[in-house]
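Here is a typical sample entry:
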Amino acid sequence: MNRRSGFSLLELTAVIAVVLLGIALTGKLFADACVSIRDALEEAENSRLIGVVVRRWPQAFRDTRATDWKISGNTFVTGKVTIEQEDDALVFHDESGSGAVYLPHAFRCEFSIEQHNTGADCAVLVIHSESRRLGRILTNKVRVVACGR
């Protein structure tokens, strides 16, 4: 009897194909995980920036009267503070200087003055943004309200 030891060329080719398929699938899963992590980090940073704006917006209207408020294009004047969107920043100007909150490029701000059902005038900032999650683009809208006296 003449017995051959080892594997045939066909068997080796099949094993190599299965190993390469496993490597390709692992690489795809790793790439998808990296994209998901990047999107989650971007969303966390955007949430942090929105939190800064949410805390800063009402401070701009402290000790102001709604009758002094004016909106002109991308600028909101409270009487003491001027707020405007310049390129990628929401800039707060007051007598002590300027402070900016740098927003991602896709953020867009809108200012308005609305009357609450109690009769109080309210300064409204609406922040429009987009985020990615699981390959989909989501449109976000955050309303920040500060009511005057």
